[in-house]
Amino acid sequence: MTQPMRLDSGGDIVRDKPLGISFDGRELEGFEGDTVASILVANSVRVCARSIYAGRPRGLMSSGPEEANVFVQVVSGAGEPMVRATEIEAYDGLVVESLASKGKLPELPDTSRYDKRFIHVETLIVGGGRSGQAVAAEAARAGDRVLIVHDRPTLARGEGGEALAGVEGLTILTRTTATGLHEHGYVVAVERRTDHLALPPATWSRQRLWNIRARQIVLATGAHERPIAFAGSDVPGVMLAASALDYVTRFGVKPGKRAVVFGCHDGAIDAARALAEAGVEIARVVDARQETTTDRVVVGTETAADGTLSAAIIRGPDGSMETVACDLLAVSGGWNPALQLYTHTGGRTRWSDEAAAFVPAAGPEQVRVVGRATGEFAAGLRPRALFCVEGHDSSPAEIFLDLQRDATLADLRRAVAAGMRSVEHVKRYTTISTAADQGRSSSVLTVGVLCQELGVPMTDGVTTTYRPPYTPISFALLAGRDYGQLADPERISSIHDWHVARGAVFEDVGQWKRPWYFPAFEAELLHDAVARECAAVRTSVGVMDASTLGKIELQGGDCGEFLDRVYTNLMSSLAVGKVRYGVMCGVDGMVLDDGTVARLTDDRWILTTTTGNAAKILDWLEEWLQTEWPELDVRCTSVTEHWATVAVVGPRSRQVVATVAPDLDVSQEAFGFMEWRDAMIGDCPARVMRISFSGELAYEVNVDAWHGQALWEAIYQAGQPYGITPYGTETMHVLRAEKGFPIVGQDTDGTVSPQDLGMGWIVSKKKPDFIGKRSYARSEAAREGRKQLVGLMPLDGSSRLVEGAQLVEAGVDLTRVPVPMVGHVTSAYDSVALGTPFALALLADGAGRHGEELQAVDKLTGIRVRVTSPVPHDPEGVRRDGD
Amino acid sequence: MLRMCCPWCGWRDELEFSYGGEAHVAYPANPAELDDAAWSEYIFFRDNTLGWFRERWAHTAGCRMWFNAIRHTVTNEFAAFYRPGDPVPEMPAEVAR
Predict the structure, then answer these.
(1) pTM, two decimal places
(2) Which residues of B touch A775 (CB under 8 A)?
(3) Residue in B closest to A778 by C-alpha
(4) Which residues in chain A are contacts of B2 at CB distance < 8 A?
(5) Three-point CA angle B34, B35, B39, nearest 5°
(6) HSE-up of A811 (CA within 13 Å, CB side)?
(7) Is residue B91 in a domain?
């Protein structure tokens, strides 16, 4: 017979819509409106899971979100690794598998859609029960926009259920759980949209993340029933009393035939009466309240061969023991108001002896608690606070406090014996309340038992801190549609399409996609391509897309004064038509960024920043202008995206630029190093600058970004007679390192001053002040042992050095730890120009150690290296004006 | 996510703002006259207040303007938002929570 425990009538199920699900391969029948749990109960499936460590058989202990035993893996549909059986709505064809407290991640990627919505309301009600509905109706009638989130499929019916009839201004989200309550009325909720459907429409998102901003938040979150711990209280057949009744009233199923009811408040007696009315035989009602005269308690259980409950062991007031056969032991130790959300932003609870519960004490102004969540109803049940019953021959290792973690009274005593007094410590030591249910059934129970063990009143107890999310949220939902291409914006230059067509290999620089190198043929390796590109630049001409450089335009009469304060060197003396290199430092004197400054007119300037630093530097400039020097007439505008910049680099670059800009006098006399000129390239106005990041004769040609690709193609065409070679960031790095040009963020790390880089010449001695100046007079700046930039060459002329390698004095035994380290490699490359691999490094007192020998450690091998000046190539700088 | 009021743009989510640390730490008028201890105090030392705190924010994803706020570092309540140069509002009395 199927569904032997299904009652003939009752429940919210749709009896003319039968369905079938599969549980561990067993086909089970149920009805629309059932949960997986109610189908298990209907079909008398009593052992539904195994406990995580002890492997004990476990059954359903609840009907709702407090379930700690029966989590299942959803196999059908989109799948889900670990869900409470009590919270899965059944559909025809649903396939689930039991778990031993741990889910298995699906092997296939989740192809479901997830999305997000934002909503603003005056009043948010969490929980659509009677109290929630009443407050919602009141608020909506007063003109508020009201949102109700309710975690079940439908709003609660019954008495007061008509409160919302005809009320306008309401939004109701069902199957929606508020998972986090944050500051300033911000609440995150998860709406489950399709998991209950056998055939979800393909266009629907599976789940939706609601970002709610509310002026007032009403928590009508209800209460969770609290178990009582005793030996064997974890066996299948022991269930929370209100849950047992819930199965009868919501689903029309009997959780047992013959029951013992064990409780310590009026609600348990009421539950016994209702179960009896539903046809469950009540063998005993054990009321633990009349302590002196008729104190009876359940101290243990007996089990049948399959591990399920067969009897309850009851101790009378005189110590007599009685064994009562039953297949259901309905337990209620009272009620815990569901105040998890209340405490997320610092709301505090206090123990109430009247309610035998933690109730709201003080919370954020915007948050109001109503209904059962206040705990007031519990006081009316005349409860006794009872958490744990230990029989004379009970083993503490069989008294389970946290069912999901298999943590017992013995574990808690071990924590107390180890000296722990705070529940936070006990929680971490025993793992109690750290499982997926986050202590919904175990947390307060543990506080109670701990106070009992320590002999302190409950009013001294505090609950552990609850943190969002209240129920697990998948990463897929948090990501929503922001994954793959939409995970982060990709920035591309206006010449990007050319690079792609040319087969460039790209690297990410911040959000920018930059060509890393341009393979000449499909299989050309990085090493070979870079050697070829470097040689082309040093001997003829190369071309690079430098559009990603940060560019900030400054306007105003005080730009010169402002730049004098933010750069270490003097900028105000720069003439129109000239360009100057500059370094910016923080107030601590350490290098922040570097770049060039060009004066366009008397009161218009343009400066460049490192590609990855553009936004940071703009913020930095704004900060000083707005908060320290508002009197200065300077306005900053980011123009990074507005200009395309093409670097034409190498001894033949002059001819190439002369070809594309025939009206521009490119002679050394007319257009010197660190100067800029206006020019026409075709019919496109351009700004040409003689700036070199390679030591070679070079021009940076800037045009409106719309014309970037046309400019690039014109230059590429004009360069054909010289074998012009496009190159990427790797070659750029090699060329600049050969000249000892540091890259901020690679060769510096926030602890490196211009002097450490060997660039003391760029720090003005004359300017009265600039950002960082005072720090160069600190003793820290003058101390011995500061790491300074040096070059390194392998003694054997062939060993490649590794970036990040530690530097160790020559002759030091690397096997004797700790190995004293004196510096580290910051940049390392092979060099065609030098005929050897080389590196830049930061070395303690390195400026005075040129010529000495060290070891650069790669894994456990020391590579012998010679310290050199940081400018290994063309130290005299003769190549910058061409050959 | 906090909700805060840019004195130029109005109420926005925290998402649009970036934090700027303690407010009213002025750049010294004459750094050269400070001894190392005083200069280090300016560079490295900030209050780590439990309670109401005057701090700086920038409306980075909006008008890019800096402003000041008084925030309670435990509850994250804001008591005031004001522009640089505005009269500095009184610190609220500590509210026991």
Answers:
(1) 0.88
(2) 39, 43
(3) B36
(4) 183-184
(5) 65
(6) 2
(7) no
Look at residue B97 and tell me if it is in a domain: no
Inter-chain CB proximity A778 and B20 less than 8 Å? no
* Enclosing domain of residue B7: 3-26+36-82
- Is residue B22 situated within a structural domain? yes
| CA-based nearest residue to A519, from A527, A508, A510, A511 | A527
Closest CA to A275 of A315, A248, A307, A297: A248
- How many inter-chain contacts (A to B, CB under 8 Å) are there? 64
What residues does A637 pair with on adjacent strands?
A553
Give chain B's domain count.
Answer: 1
Contact A313, A290 (CB under 8 A): no
| Beta-carbon separation of A619 and B26 below 8 A | no
What value of ipTM does the predicted structure carry? 0.96
pLDDT digit string, tens, across residues A746-791: 999 999 999 999 999 999 999 999 999 999 999 999 899 999 999 9
CB contact under 8 A, B31 and A774: yes
**Cis ω for the linkage preceding A457 (within 30 of 0):** no
The nearest alpha carbon in chain B to A180 belongs to: B1
Of the candidates A187, A175, A183, A174, the one whose C-alpha atom is nearest the C-alpha of residue A219 is: A187
Find all residues with CB under 8 Å of A639, minimum gap 6, and list them: A551, A552, A553, A606
A616: left (phi over 0), alpha (psi -120 to 50) or beta: alpha
CA distance B18 to chain A (A): 10
Contact check, Cβ <8 Å, B76/A183: yes
A430: its two tokens: 């025993």
Query: Which residue matches tokens 């780590």?
Result: B48
Q: Is residue B74 part of a domain?
A: yes
User: Residue A114, by phi and psi: left (phi above 0), alpha (psi -120 to 50) or beta?
Assistant: beta
For testing contact with chain A, the best of B36, B46, B74, B95 (most A CBs within 10 A): B36
What is the pLDDT averaged over residues A58-69?
Answer: 95
Domains of chain A plus CATH, in order, are 14-98 (3.10.20.440), 114-220 (3.50.50.60), 496-547+643-735 (3.30.1360.120), 550-642 (3.30.70.1400), 785-876 (2.40.30.110)
Q: Tens of pLDDT along A171-212?
A: 999 999 999 999 999 999 999 999 999 999 989 999 999 999
- Give the CATH number, domain containing residue B64: 3.30.2270.10
B31 with A628: Cβ contact below 8 A: no
Residues B44, B58: contact at Cβ < 8 Å? no
Element (H, E) at A173: strand A170-173
Reported confidence tier of residue A293, pLDDT bands at 50, 70, 90: very low
CA atoms within 13 A on the CB side of A361: 15
Residues 6+ apart with CB under 8 A from A651: A539, A540, A541, A696, A697, A879, A882, A883
Query: Nearest 10 degrees: CA dihedral of A495, A501, A502, A507?
Result: 70
